[in-house]
Fold:
Amino acid sequence: MTHVVATPPLTEIPVAGSSQTFPVRRVYCVGRNYVEHAKEMGFTGREPPFFFMKPADAVMVVPEGATGEMPYPTRTADLHHEIELVAAIGTGGRNIAAAEAHNHVFGYAIGLDMTRRDLQGEAKKQGRPWEVGKAFDHSGPIGPIHRASETGHYVKGAISLEVNGAPRQGSDISLLIWNVAETIEHLSTLFELQPGDLIYTGTPEGVAAVSRGDLLVGRVEGLGELRVRLV
Ligand code: MN
Structure:
């Protein structure tokens, strides 16, 4: 059989320290997963985790040592950064218990859940879906995936973002409301996870707007840094 249009390219993320890549199937994201960020968004307390998605081709791959160039998106005047730890699923499953969840993680990366906050805010107000705020092209910059066999599984570790050299976000993975294992437990009751799935685990406090020309440098302890310039 032949296709009637060009085959969409597969999104592939380099695996650190190797020539192999991680093919992306789905991109799940966790909302409001650090207490201080939930507060800055007007919420308090521990609510059950909730999820949204980005399309796989919204993932913008930034190779090791490179500075990715993210086009400033259309139809927004309030583009926000959200620095996040990303877990990459290596083994699928459904109804995965938290105690088993780490066995399903191939590795970890630094990601940015870039957000058109004005469009997301309007969607929230109107009770509409979040796609236009969250799932636009280039909205998910990501660095190389580091094998969990080398980094260990993330239950703690510093996470931060600076913009033009000034600190904007800073926290610790231990402050996740729902940690990686618990997130997988919940998510796998809603969807059957598959190899190639990414989970953006949520952002700490300090989200704010960026402009064309700004340089974003995100760091997660043990994963190096993710550099993105808005163009
Ligand atoms: Mn986020």
